[in-house]
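Pilot study result, target chain (148 residues):
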Amino acid sequence: MKDVKQDKLTGTLAFRLGMLGSITADLFAERIAVHGLKPKHAGLMALLASGAAASQQEIARTMGVTPSLVVGLADHLEELGAVGRERDPGDRRRQVLTLTARGRELLALCTSAAHAIDEELTAGLDDAPRAALREALAVLAARAGLPG
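Predicted structure:
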């Protein structure tokens, strides 16, 4: 016999992950706002720290946002002293962003905030289910093309 709960929208992974994602994103945004940051700022800094992209065009492509949004994010991060802009010596039309020491400090604060939220979200789980959740989410994230 089919589980009635499975027939409900609220029982689907899509709904639950979406709602939990929204709640988690709001918590993260609230916690990093005290540093003058939004989640996309943290994402840009994490991307720079990973070395996956450096030019504003590459960053826009990787983040799945418009280049003009990257310019705005970079402008704000530059004002905070978190990133520097340099012309690519091989292509003067291209601007390369670099993470500064202040940017690494801010990224560490964002990472600490995210870890604290992780602990709050998984407080009711023992080590084994917590590890299984991390592993399952890592697989889903990789399949969606998100950085590891």
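One observation from the pilot: The domain at 4-143 is CATH 1.10.10.10 (Arc Repressor Mutant, subunit A). A full batch analysis is planned for the follow-on phase.
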